[in-house]
Design goal:
Helix content is 32%, strand content 25%. By secondary structure, it is of the alpha/beta class.
C-alpha cells in the first residue's frame, strides 16, 4: 500500500520507519529543507514516560492564577494573541481538571509513553542508532516540602502502572546527581524515575530518516502542503506546491498545524500550539552539570545532558502560532539552571522556540480520522512528542496494516472526544 506521511518531525519520521518496516511504500512530505527542523529540533531532550503527566489536574486553576503574578511563571498567556481556538483550548483544559479525568488521562499517557520507551529500546538494539542518548533515569527536583507531599499522588498512579520510582532525600539526589551539590540548600527532595532516558531528538530523527531512506522511504522536502482533498468519506489527494500527490492512505503528523489543514474538510481537531523554549549551551565544568536529566518542579524547567552540551527547556506560552523569541522566557530558563547547576556557558547558548501540539486532556491523538477511511492521525503529543514518538508510530503502523496492536489503542483515537 502507498502511504503519504504529512510532516517530517520525530513523529512523522518514526511513523514512516515502522510503515516501511511493514512493507508499505512510504513518502514523507514537509515544507522544510530537512527533517526535524521545527518542534523536534531543540526540545528538552527527555524521553520521560514516568514524567508523563497531563497539565489538566486538580488545583491547576488556582496554580495558574498564582503563576500569573510571578515574573518567572511556568505559564504565560499573551493577551494580544487571544482567539477562539485559545479560548476553546483553555475551556476544555479546565474541564479536565478533575480527579477522575486526571487519573484517566495520566493512565493513557503512561501507557503510550512506557510502550514508546520499549519501542525505542528495541529500535536502538536493532539498528545501533546513536543520538547523544543516555539511559540513567530522571529526577524531579522539589524545592519545598509541599511539592514533596504532592508527589505522593503521582507515586500512587506510578505504582498502579507498575512504573519503578523512588522518593529521594537530598543526600539521595546528590548520589545520582553530584553536580547539584552547590544547590543543596535549595532542595527538599526528589522523585527519581530510573526508567526514563534522554537524547537529542533532532539527531535521532535525522539518523532514523537516513535509515528509512535506505529502506525505500521517499522524502519530499521544500514542499508546502496547501490542502487535503476529500470526498464524502475518503481522501483522494493532497494539494502541494509541487503538484497534487496521491496515495492509498494518508497520515497527518503536522503537529500544531494539523487542525488548520483538516478544518476545511470539516474535521475538528482539538489541538492547540503551546509555545516552548530552550537553551543549548556548551559544558564548561563537568562537575557542575547533570549526569543525566532533571526537572525543576518550581519553574517546570528540564535540564538535560546531551553529550558535551546542556539543553535547558521549558515554559508554556499561549500565543497562537507566533514564533517570536521572548527574552523574559530566556531569563526563566537561565535562572533555573543557574540556581541548580552552573557548569555551562549560557552566554554562548543557542536560544530556540517551538510549538508543542497540545490536546486538552494531554493524550495524543493516534488512530483513524473519523469518517475518512483512509486518513490517519498521529498528532497532539504536547511536550512529549520525543517521549511518545516510537510508540505512537509503531501503534499507528500496526493499525494501518490491520495488525493487532501491542497495547490498547481505541481510547487514543479522535473518537474519545465525540463522547
Amino acid at each position: 500500500m502507498k502511504i503519504i506521511v504529512l510532516g517530517a518531525g520525530v513523529v512523522g519520521v518514526t511513523t514512516a520507519w515502522y510503515l516501511a518496516e511493514q512493507g508499505h511504500e512510504v513518502e514523507v512530505v514537509d515544507r522544510q529543507p530537512g527533517v526535524a527542523l521545527e518542534t523536534s529540533f531543540a526540545n528538552a531532550g527527555q524521553v520521560s514516560p514516568g514524567y508523563s503527566t497531563p497539565w489538566a489536574m486538580p488545583g491547576l486553576p488556582l496554580k495558574a492564577m498564582r503563576w500569573m503574578l510571578s515574573k518567572h511563571s511556568p505559564l504565560v498567556i499573551r493577551p494580544e494573541a487571544a482567539s477562539l481556538p485559545m479560548a476553546r483550548f483553555v475551556t476544555q483544559l479546565l474541564a479536565n481538571c478533575t480527579s477522575k479525568s486526571y487519573d484517566i488521562n495520566k493512565g493513557r499517557m503512561l501507557r503510550i509513553a512506557e510502550y514508546s520507551r520499549d519501542c525505542l529500546t528495541a529500535l536502538r538494539q536493532l539498528t545501533g542508532i546513536q543520538y547523544d542518548g543516555s539511559q540513567n533515569g530522571l529526577i524531579q527536583l522539589f524545592r519545598t516540602q509541599k511539592q514533596v507531599d504532592h508527589a505522593h499522588e503521582d507515586m500512587r498512579l506510578l505504582s498502579e502502572s507498575n512504573i519503578p520510582h523512588e522518593l529521594l532525600d537530598v543526600s539521595g539526589i546528590l548520589k545520582y546527581e553530584p553536580g547539584l551539590a552547590g544547590a543543596r540548600q535549595r532542595l527538599a527532595g526528589g522523585l527519581r524515575l530510573p526508567g526514563d532516558e534522554a537524547g537529542d531528538a533532532y539527531l535521532f530523527t535525522k539518523r532514523l530518516a537516513e535509515m528509512a531512506a535506505e529502506k525505500g522511504v521517499t522524502f519530499r522536502f521544500h514542499t508546502q502542503i496547501e490542502a487535503v482533498e476529500a470526498a464524502a468519506d475518503n481522501i483522494y489527494g493532497i494539494r502541494t506546491s509541487a503538484g497534487r500527490l496521491t496515495a492509498d492512505a494518508y497520515v497527518m503528523a503536522l503537529g500544531s498545524y494539523s487542525p488548520r489543514l483538516l478544518k476545511p474538510i470539516e474535521l475538528d481537531l482539538p489541538v492547540y500550539p503551546v509555545k516552548g523554549y530552550s537553551l543549548t549551551a556548551p559544558i564548561t565544568d563537568e562537575s557542575r552539570v547533570p549526569l543525566s536529566t532533571v526537572n525543576d518542579e518550581t519553574y517546570k524547567v528540564a535540564i538535560t545532558r546531551l553529550g558535551d552540551r546542556i539543553r535547558i527547556g521549558g515554559t508554556a506560552e499561549l500565543a497562537g502560532w507566533r514564533l517570536r523569541l521572548s527574552e523574559d522566557r530566556r531569563e526563566t530558563l537561565e535562572l533555573s539552571f543557574s540556581e541548580m547547576f552552573g557548569g555551562a556557558d549560557l552566554s554562548h547558548a543557542r536560544y530556540w522556540t517551538g510549538l508543542r501540539p497540545c490536546t486538552p486532556d494531554g493524550t495524543p491523538i493516534v488512530g483513524p480520522a473519523g469518517r475518512y477511511g483512509n486518513l490517519w492521525l498521529n498528532t497532539g503529543h504536547g511536550t512529549l512528542g520525543w517521549t511518545m514518538a516510537c510508540g505512537s508510530g509503531k501503534l499507528l503502523a500496526d493499525r494501518i496494516s490491520g495488525r493487532r496492536t501491542e497495547i490498547p489503542a481505541l481510547d487514543l483515537s479522535l473518537d474519545r472526544y465525540a463522547a
